[in-house]
Design goal:
single chain, eight-stranded antiparallel beta barrel, 4 helices
């Protein structure tokens, strides 16, 4: 009889091990703990989420504060694309002797691209006590407000004004 009880006790322990916290049954029933990023984004921008039943299944619709309704994943993808675009400020300048040039300032990258005479020259932002300075060594732009000075090597500086 002792052996029988030991076998039953051992058998129970084995069966109990099948329902242990790490088992497949318990993993399937446990929530993962991750929110739907598209639904969370809808709420983060002040929208109200509504689930609609459609022919292809359920779709999350986000009603924005201005009343616009958009599918939650479309809204999320749009925000991700916008975040990936670099912020730029493009300024056209009119310089001495009627010359023109364009400078694209990359706001978050501390660099600028000077376009002049069909050439594009990349410049890196430099420390400045007042105004701004971008340079790559031989080419430098310095400015404050709408005024800009272009320095190219040892040439006489060229004065420019934003258009």
């Amino acid at each position: 009889m002792k052996h029988y009880l030991i076998l039953v006790a051992t058998g129970s322990a084995v069966l109990a091990g099948c329902a242990a916290p790490g088992s497949q049954e318990n993993l399937a029933a446990s929530p993962i703990g991750m929110a739907n990023p598209a639904a969370q984004h809808c709420v983060d921008v002040g929208g109200t989420l509504r689930i609609e039943d459609g022919a292809a299944g359920q779709v999350g619709m986000c009603q924005l504060p201005d009343g616009t309704e958009v599918e939650e994943w479309a809204l999320f993808r749009q925000s991700q694309q916008a975040a990936a675009q670099p912020r730029t400020n493009v300024v056209d300048y009119r310089c001495d002797h009627g010359q023109g040039m364009r400078v694209t300032y990359f706001v978050d990258a501390e660099r600028a691209v000077l376009e002049r005479d069909g050439m594009a020259i990349e410049l890196v932002q430099q420390p400045s006590a007042s105004g701004f300075i971008y340079s790559n060594g031989p080419n430098t732009i310095r400015g404050k407000g709408d005024a800009l000075t272009l320095e190219i090597g040892r040439m006489v500086p060229i004065q420019c004004q934003a258009e």
